[in-house]
Amino acid sequence: MEISIFEAAAAYDYEMARESIKEGSGLSYPQQYVIFDTDNYAVWFCNCSETGNVELIAEYALSDGSPFMDDVMTELAKFVPGHSEAELRGCLEEQRESINSEMLTFLVSGLDGAALTIGDVTVKCSELEYIFRTALQKLDDVLSKMEELWAKSGFDEDSVRIIMAGSPADHVLTWNHICRKLSEKRFYDIELVSSDSRFVNFTYGISAGRIAEEGEKLYNEHSRIGVDIALLAVEGGEGAVQKIPLAAKKTPMASFEDMRYMGPLFIAEGEDLELEVDQERKKIKIPDFFASEDGDLIDVRVCVKDRRPLLRIRRCSAPDCIYDVLI
Fold it and tell me: Sign (positive/negative) of CA torsion 200, 202, 205, 209?
């Protein structure tokens, strides 16, 4: 991934929240996120601004580098020998829906039914719980740091948004384990998690395993400029209009941080600049202090602020005199 898991998860929730706002569900900013990366035994506390900028506040990750599902596969291979890792992973994923149904019944009632079938081997719920044991114990190390991280972040427990990312969180065993640990330490009712608005996974239309992937797509989509921008300038004394490209659609916004100025351009007193934005013309008024009675020379370039393109105008005779206009 080009960005971190927490940035991708935050980007996904940010876009989903924006859709909720359009539908009348109000949100205040900054949003406070607690993001679990169940794949890699990590948790992040971060803020997300109204413009989607993410600030990391506190974090903890287990130093052991083996991913959660690798640990599960190691234990499953001991129980069901003679199968490749790909076969085991495939069975676990293909049967996930029925596994979750059986495991939920087991966790609620203790009924120890068949959770998973691999070839001619049937794995009972209690056995699958044991197979997940090592991975969940390692996850406990992360969860044990929650009090410390919560205190460090200063987050409001009533308004925080909790995101569980990674394919392990698509398993009832993992989800239930995390929620139970949180309910022991914090003000969460394990029986009401599905209706608790702080656990935002329930509002998504995708699995936890896809959050990072879809979030990265949204991040890339919204971290690139969305329009073509050109300056329309009169060339020479013949009045011919020249179109000078300033920004191209899908250019990464970060590339505009050090973009060179274009110019110099002569601007007469009271004259406007004219842009072409996605083939539509738009006039930009120059502030009165820029152009004297005799006119002045200026430089221009596109920059980005809060994910929005701006036209930055600089006076050549006074480079510190800068004027930004939202395009």
Answer: positive
**Strand pairing report for 240-247 and 114-118:** unpaired
Q: At what angle do helices 211-222 and 5-22 cross, to 10 degrees?
A: 70
Give ∠ CA 250-253-256 in degrees, rounded to 5: 115
Whether cis (ω within 30° of 0) applies to the bond prior to 168 is no
pTM of the model: 0.73
pLDDT beyond 60 at 270: yes
Tokens of 312: 């930055």
Q: CB under 8 Å to 25, separation ≥6 — which residues?
A: none
The H or E element containing residue 123 is strand 121-124
- Residues 155-183 have pLDDT tens digits of 988 889 999 999 999 999 999 999 888 88
DSSP H or E segment with residue 245: strand 240-247
pLDDT at 237: 54
Cα 246 to Cα 206: distance, rounded to the nearest angstrom: 38
Here the tokens at position 154 are: 């200063």
Tell me how far apart the alpha carbons of residues 257 and 254 are, in angstroms, rounded to a whole number. Answer: 6
Which structure tokens are listed for 174? Answer: 């993992």
Give per-residue pLDDT as tens, 201-259.
Answer: 988 889 999 999 999 988 887 777 888 999 988 766 566 788 889 998 878 787 788 78
Residue 3: the pLDDT is 84
The two three-digit tokens of residue 242, written as one number: 């020249």
Taking only Cα atoms into account, the Rg of the chain, rounded to an integer number of angstroms, comes to 27
Model pLDDT for residues 291-306, shown as the tens digit of each residue:
666 778 889 999 988 7
Q: Which residue has the tokens 């044990």?
A: 144
